[in-house]
Amino acid sequence: MTPPTLLFGAFDRHNFGDLLFPHVAAALLPGRPLIFAGLAARDMRPWGGHPVRALAELAAELRAEPLHLVHVGGELLSCSAWQAAVMLQTPDAAPAIIRRLDARPADRQAWAEAQLGFAAEAPYCIPPRLFPAARRIVYCGVGGVDLADQPSVLRDEVLARLRAADAIGVRDRLTLAGLARAGIPATLMPDPAVLVAELFGPAIAAHGRLGEVADIRREAAQGYLAVQIAADFGDDATLAALASQLDRAASASGDGIALFRAGAAPWHDDRECLRRLAGRLRTRPLRTLESLHLWDICALIAGSRAYCGSSLHGRIVATAFGLPRINLLHPSQVGQWTKQAAFATTWDAPDEPGAVLIAELADGLARSFAVSPARRRLDAADFAGRCRAAFYALHA
Questions:
Q1: From residue 396, how far is each of 29, 140, 154, 280, 392 by CA, in Å?
Q2: Where is the domain boundary, 167, 188, 209?
Q3: How many folded domains does the chain comprise?
């Protein structure tokens, strides 16, 4: 009898990439008994996700089971217990919790452990003690660009967890080099979301023919730029600069603009921020996608002329569909490596812009439009093939 495979990640909160990962893994593991696990029990099906079970509860129930444990995608290696627990709160509740506990490290750690149900500095790396009978522990397409900059107690815990793993796949060269310096072997592989067009193209196309996305496509028949920004882009000066660059880019390409959110969990995207950006834009047609459904977001990107935003997975889905794409750096990230820049530098050709400053947005999009569509399609197929091969090698 095939032992169950426990797919683990941040599937329990609304973030675009995290909702995609379990779909990709499940599609690549047909016929296997699967358990979808997160840090909290949540039913994410209203947003296109999965019914997710809490890791702590599963550990009590399945302690003696010969499971396969698979950490599926995401910047899992540098996420602390405090960050993870806050992102599981509602957007309304999170600010008060942060104000109360952010400056009290011991209290916030105790609160986080109470929320998660087990003690860990890095809870997205499963402590082996929770599943002592596990047959195989895999990390698949994960990232940890800033792991070296984390507190030593978190970094040491992550490295110990990785040393206990049977196979590790990471999605960028920066993470790969960091693990190599710690003596931990890993395989370089594209993020699992590069398979989204290959695996779910028909379902995404069907969503594009319905509801809001279909309305946006009809209104912007000449084309539109799919634009998204995180909540921390919401100060007036940043929004003004962003609107100016987006208007310039849309004017040059002859496109409208469709705004959307790639994540509704705390520290992700904010509807009010998009509303304020829309108020500064002159480009028409201009629409905002209200839906937070996973396949609606994919359909909006897939039907666009280009993607522009702060979401790594906005970029990766555009890549999967062979589209121009550009990531935006927040002003506070100047001179820093980000997961967006690390991924683009690892996989995209030098003429494909990676993560740029807001002042470089219009020129960057123009450079991305100049890349041959045929080359982009070949790249998308190559990334998908590499990811599929690496996925199966990790699970061999």
A1: 12, 13, 30, 52, 6
A2: 188
A3: 2
Q: Does one domain contain both 145 and 244? A: no
Check whether residue 171 and residue 310 sit in a common domain.
no
Over residues 145-204, the pLDDT tens digits come to 999 999 999 999 999 999 999 999 999 999 999 999 999 999 999 999 999 999 999 999
Task: Indicate if 55 and 181 belong to the same structural domain.
Answer: yes
**Contact criterion met (CB below 8 Å) for 343 and 316:** yes
Distance CA 212, CA 193 (A): 23
User: To the nearest 10°, the Cα dihedral for 227, 231, 237, 243?
Assistant: 10
Nearest CA among 288, 279, 292 for reference residue 256: 288
Among 57, 67, 30, which Cα is nearest to 117's? 57
Bond before 285 cis per omega within 30 degrees:
yes
pTM value?
A: 0.96
Q: Which string of b and e fits 1-40 if b means at least 16 CB within 10 Å?
A: eeebbbbbbbbbbbbbbbbbbbbbbbebbeeeebbbbbbb
Q: How far apart are CA 86 and CA 330, in angstroms?
A: 21
pLDDT digits (tens, 9 = 90+) for 354-367: 999 999 999 999 99
